[in-house]
Design brief:
Chain B: GO terms for molecular function: GTP binding. The complex is a heterodimer of chains A (336) and B (451). Chain A is an alpha/beta fold and 336 residues long. Helix content of chain A is 36%, strand content 19%. Helix content of chain B is 53%, strand content 14%. A 6-stranded mixed sheet of chain B has the order 3-4-2-5-6-7, sandwiched between helices. In chain B, strands 8-9-10 form a 3-stranded antiparallel sheet, with no helix packed on it. Classes of the chains: A alpha/beta (336), B alpha/beta (451). Chains A and B meet through strand 1, helix 1, strand 2, strand 3 and strand 4 of A and helix 1, strand 1, helix 2, strand 3 and strand 4 of B.
């Protein structure tokens, strides 16, 4: 009864005059401002590497766990516990719900085997939560996003190479989340030592097949590739964090005051904190979220649906045969 | 400051903080916009209206281009939809626009099923999106979204009220798509008639419960404009791609002997308002409404139809997996049952056929036996006849031998007994002929040619 004439080729047409299509960019901006933004960042590293301080410096406010619970004693916990704190911060009309997930106890025990397990479990739990919400019949208008968008991994500034715990962690976790490795407390390295250290770390990463953010495979166009190549050449960033301000040349700057000088945190000649901040917040914030949503979450979803053999086409939902119902063949190290 | 979704979320200790300096995440909208520019936008408009009411012309005028649509005839047997996709670019924004036109709407004698092709088309686009979403390996961010974002419904400028076809169609579509009614060819209505017409149309829509698209009022930058525009619905539009010189400018207009109707003159028609609302202010909202309201409704209905629920009868949350497993079991059981049924049927048929064949075999066997018996009987009869014939022959032979002996004896006893001999001879001959005759009589049955 129904006859549909559908022509599938796309025609390129020129506009004779102004239409107003570009106003859609403004519409998008307004919508983003109205809706706000959720960002979840995880910091992983041994105690004493300055994780909390760095996060506070990044977001210029007391967002870390330590600042929120000032009364807790700093005992080293027996197992890795995850502790997440959420804040709403606003800048120029843009509201952001920032969640910082801290991992006290990581790498602190004598026997650190499998210390990444609680972390992997937590990350997968967030994916699972999102997946369940997405599969509901009555879905919320906006599914609350608690997935980890970025994981900052702190490398101690030994000056040598990656340690076994670093390799193991980054190998496993790098598959499921975007990892950004940083060299913590980099003010103990001179510039030359820093360059050598970074070079060796990059070699180690390549040798072990560890993919850190920004991953080469996900570059969409040549421009992005050029930009990301430059970033890849300088990771891991050597950072110094602080929340104290000092006077330098008449300006108030964030810095660490020592007997031999003031290390300015935001000075690119001193440390790479500004680069890290630009990467995470000013240029690649949306990209981090997109990579998490389009790639890591989808990988998880494929694996999960294949595990539970949920193939909706069997129930006659799809009229066309699925051409890609094959299982994901990644190693299953899920700790679900 | 309007409260946002983010702040409203239930906090597990979510506290607002103030920043000590410039962090920089206010550039997020720009990052998002840059990404979208790279990816391009997509927008799908459906135009429903009678043939010749000016749908193609209005599209050409709205997007300031020539879409090369051919005029359609009035003699289409059914309503069809014709979709065409165009790639437009304005400065750095790329738009993939799909314009879907109805062909033959309102031309048939019986218009009862006119709305059905349109509803089917819209549902089909939702269905293909749903299937993509439910795939295991899917690529939603690359997917070319073909769901209808806006539906322009062209009302003919009768000046009185809506036609029943209009009401029926709009009622069927209002839960599936954002409907924006427009009054076409508005240059045939005078200002006062137009005002009354608009009021009549809106009141009819309200009294029939038709939900048309309302421009959103929650964003204060555009709330004011949208409220005003909501009061001007439906827009009375005039479309034209020809240019006429008015004053010292060339403007898009329609030239009549009594004057020039300028398309972009707000006092002449509402075209500018339509373009403003449809494209410049609310395009993103139209897309969002389609996705979050109409598509979700379709998805919910479709999945509930298939038997998926969020909570089971005791109101405990049921995960999709459990429902899925249950359904799958059901399905497999059903499959198994059908397989068994088929197998049984097959076995039965085989049995039947076998018994038929056995029957036939027995039949044949019987006939064979019968024939055999017949043959045996005939054979026996013939054997009998042969025996008798043989007997006669042998007795005939004996008698001939005896006669010859007698002849020989009578030859030696000369003459007196000639007569006797002759008599005896004649007698013997007579007897012989009689025997022969009998033989012939007997052989007559075997040798048919004698008789």
């Amino acid at each position: 009864m129904l006859v549909l004439a559908l022509e599938n080729h796309t025609v390129c047409t020129d506009l004779f005059g102004y239409v107003g299509i570009e106003a859609v960019l403004d519409q998008m901006r307004r919508k983003t401002m109205k809706v706000g933004l959720e960002f979840n960042i995880m910091v992983v590293g041994q105690s004493g590497l300055g994780k909390s301080t760095l996060v506070n410096t990044l977001f210029k406010s007391k967002v870390s766990r330590k600042s929120c619970t000032p009364n807790c004693e700093e005992k080293i916990s027996k197992t890795v516990k995850l502790h997440s704190v959420s804040h709403v911060i606003e800048e120029k009309g843009m509201k952001m719900k920032l969640t910082v997930i801290d991992t006290p106890g990581f790498g602190d025990q004598i026997n650190n085997e499998n210390c990444w397990e609680p972390i992997v479990k937590h990350i997968n739990e967030q994916y699972e939560k999102y997946l369940r919400e997405e599969l509901h019949i009555n879905r919320k208008r906006r599914i609350p996003d608690s997935r980890v968008h970025c994981c900052i991994y702190f490398l101690p500034a030994t000056g040598h190479r990656l340690r076994p715990i670093d390799v193991e962690f980054m190998k496993r976790v790098g598959k499921i989340v975007s990892i950004v490795p940083v060299i913590a407390k980099a003010d103990t390295l001179t510039i030359e030592e820093r360059q050598e250290f970074k070079e060796r770390i990059r070699q180690d990463l390549a040798a072990n097949g560890i993919r850190v953010y920004p991953q080469k495979e996900y570059d969409d166009d040549p421009e992005e590739r050029i930009l990301n190549d430059r970033i890849r050449e300088s990771i891991p960033f050597a950072v110094v964090g602080t929340d104290k301000e000092h006077q330098v040349n008449g300006n108030k700057v964030l810095g660490r005051k020592t007997k031999w000088g003031i290390i300015e945190v935001e000075n690119v000649a001193h440390c790479e904190f500004a680069n890290l901040r630009d990467l995470l917040i000013r240029s690649h914030l949306q990209d981090l979220k997109d990579v998490t949503h389009n790639i890591h979450y989808e990988t998880y979803r494929v694996r999960r649906l294949n595990e539970s053999n949920m193939n909706f086409s069997e129930l006659g939902l799809s009229a066309r045969p699925l051409e890609n119902g094959t299982a994901d063949t990644s190693e299953s190290e899920s700790h679900l | 400051m309007a409260s946002t979704d983010v702040a409203r979320q239930p906090g597990q200790g979510v506290r607002p903080l103030s920043l000590a300096g410039h962090v920089g995440f206010d550039s997020l909208p720009d990052q998002l916009v840059n990404k979208s520019i790279c990816q391009g936008f997509c927008f799908n408009i459906l135009c429903i209206g009678e043939t010749g009411i000016g749908k193609s012309t209005l599209m050409d005028t709205l997007f300031n281009t020539n879409f090369e649509n051919l005029e359609s005839s009035h003699f289409e047997p059914q309503v069809k939809l014709h979709a065409q996709t165009y790639d437009l670019q304005e400065s750095n924004v790329r738009l993939r626009l799909t314009v879907v036109n109805t062909v033959g709407f309102g031309d048939q004698m019986n218009k009862q099923e006119s709305y059905q092709p349109v509803v089917d088309y819209i549902d089909r686009q939702f269905e293909s999106y749903l299937q993509e979403e439910l795939k295991i390996k899917r690529s939603l961010h690359n997917y070319h979204d073909s769901r209808v974002h806006a539906c322009l419904y062209f009302i003919s400028p009768s000046g009185h009220s809506l036609k029943s076809l209009d009401l029926v169609t709009m009622k069927k579509l209002d839960s599936k798509v954002n409907i924006i009614p427009v009054i076409a060819k508005a240059d045939t209505i005078s200002k006062s008639e137009l005002h009354k017409f608009k009021i009549k149309i809106m009141s009819e829509l309200v009294s029939n419960g038709v939900q048309i698209y309302q421009f959103p009022l929650d964003d204060e930058t555009v709330a004011k404009v949208n409220t005003t525009m909501n009061g001007h619905l439906p827009f009375a539009v005039v479309g034209s791609t020809e240019e006429v010189s008015v004053g010292n400018k060339m403007v898009k207009a329609r030239q009549y002997p009594w004057g020039v109707v300028q398309v972009e003159n707000e006092s002449h028609c509402d075209f500018v308002k339509l373009r403003e609302m449809l494209i410049c202010v609310n395009m993103e909202d139209l897309r969002e409404q389609t996705h979050t309201r109409h598509y979700e409704l379709y998805r919910r209905c479709k999945l509930e139809e298939m038997g998926f629920k969020d909570t089971d009868p005791e109101c405990k949350p049921v995960s999709l997996q459990q429902t899925y497993e249950a359904k799958r079991q059901e399905f497999l059981v059903e499959l198994q049952k059908r397989e068994d049924e088929m197998r049984q049927m097959f076995v039965q048929r085989v049995k039947e056929k076998e018994s038929e064949l056995k029957e036939a075999e027995r039949d044949l066997q019987g006939r064979f036996e019968q024939l055999k018996r017949l043959h045996a009987d005939e054979k026996a009869a013939l054997e009998e006849k042969k025996r008798l014939l043989d007997e006669d022959q042998s007795s005939f032979g004996k008698r001939r031998a005896a006669a010859q002996l007698l002849q020989a004896q009578s030859l030696t006893a000369n003459g007196k007994k000639d007569k006797d001999r002759k008599n005896i001879k004649r007698q013997t001959q007579v007897a012989l002929w009689a025997d022969l005759g009998r033989c012939c009589y007997y052989t007559g049955g075997i040798n048919d040619s004698r008789t």
